[in-house]
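Q: Predict the assembly, please.
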Amino acid sequence: MHVSSQQHAADRLLDAIERMAAPACVGLDPVLERLPDAIGPRTTDAAASLAAIETFCLGVLDAVTGAVPCVKLQAACFERYRHRGVELMHRLIAAADQRGLEVILDAKRGDVGISAEHYAAGLFDEHVSTRAAGAEAADDRPDWVTINSYLGADGIEPFLRRGHGAFALVRTSNPGGDALQSTCIVGNETGAATVAERVAVIVAASGDTHLGHRGFSSLGAVVGATKPQDAARLRELMPRQIFLVPGYGAQGATASDIMPCFDQHGRGAIVSASRSVIFAFKPGDGAWRDTVREAALAFADEIGTTVRLR
Amino acid sequence: MHVSSQQHAADRLLDAIERMAAPACVGLDPVLERLPDAIGPRTTDAAASLAAIETFCLGVLDAVTGAVPCVKLQAACFERYRHRGVELMHRLIAAADQRGLEVILDAKRGDVGISAEHYAAGLFDEHVSTRAAGAEAADDRPDWVTINSYLGADGIEPFLRRGHGAFALVRTSNPGGDALQSTCIVGNETGAATVAERVAVIVAASGDTHLGHRGFSSLGAVVGATKPQDAARLRELMPRQIFLVPGYGAQGATASDIMPCFDQHGRGAIVSASRSVIFAFKPGDGAWRDTVREAALAFADEIGTTVRLR
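A: Predicted assembly structure:
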């Protein structure tokens, strides 16, 4: 988000999606072992590793700009390099912002209210000293962050700042997610039948006081594409939430799996693909950026067509 | 943890607790506004703020050494300063290690398996370049980290590394925690009656393959002291988990509230107090370190006496 823009986060994201007719997001989950051969060196030195990851991520950002409206950075891939990784992560957020991309930081933060305030300050306050000297107004703050709402509403609220938003984990796409999230709860007046649906009710209530002009909230929801059977009900329980839908591509979800995440106008969700796009090349592919761009374009076209925006 | 020590994390923590006869942990949640007047300056400059926080935290570490066996760093208080804060956080972990303290990093991380691996690598791999040059074998890796288990077992397993451990959030001490965690679930063969109890069953199962010589697991559980009515049942469901019990002191829990977290021998839990100890002084208190030490000693004595270790 450009510093000058104080537009509601949901309005801004939905506008960006419509401009490109593609509710598609490319996930940056860089790992050293899968970088193209052209980007060396393979090393155990942290500084050299991070330089290679930076080169790769900037190449991916160039490749996907104009193909998708949004990127999602996986914080864990950067935090594994501790402070140096965190510094790089924010530089890449600024680089994505300069390219006009909306940015989601996939950090899955969650704590009690006072600690959530600290996390939100770290992400959304201006940190002038970390911005590139002399650069024009690139913003190293993410537009959105993913959060974990196991601690309830007081851990959510601090992230809902003017111009920014959060996606709360509701239904995740991983194998272990079912054990808790699919557990049936005792019926109550909210209409929730599972743990994930109970979280959905909490998220819908928290988000209702943060609506943009287009009727969607700056509190969205993570709803994995690998759980299509659950998505329709979650859509009903969370009519004002933008769904961030991971699990497409490498995790096995197909185009028809994602349909229930959208409303009848093909709105209200954004589908994320990571490895199937950013690692679309063979290791020795000298034109790996072109290959990533083609994969991003194909992904955007597939999603845009599926939801009939194209 | 000293690099040379590969003792099981649970054995090491229980030994440390018994050596001091105090299952007590002091939480470092430093905030600029509450530092003693003697530590200046009050400033909006990030570097100066962090220098003040470092001075304060080192003073607290000196003050609590010999009073309690363990400290807990709140990651959010450091991450609000981004990379510089992360660097300081690991320096303070090393400083705590040098003083012989067990260290819990309260980071509440949680993600799918592959991302959890990255987080675990960032915390528990050796990062030689970040260790103080010339320092003797201080270790800047935490002994334990808190994690969020909403994503299930595959997000837990990566944190259970040799010599390290994790405390999974089960029942939190904040006001909003009830909305989800107290929700009643449909009865099943596991005996869990609420969402928190369902998480407890998942945690107990995941932890059972990581037991130390003393019968406790390197997968522990966070169980807030403000929920004594729940603690007894959670103790039954998680007989092999060490409970990390926040909420004592500033959050209102009393000595009798914590009793159900321990087994009949006064073992299996460690109680954490943060603000009531580290901010025990008045702003102008020139001897604030002594005041913190007295508060830590009183806290340790109160807990040690309550569970009849003293």
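The beta strands of chain B are 24-28, 70-74, 102-109, 144-147, 165-171, 219-223, 243-245, 269-273. DSSP finds eleven helices and eight strands in chain B.
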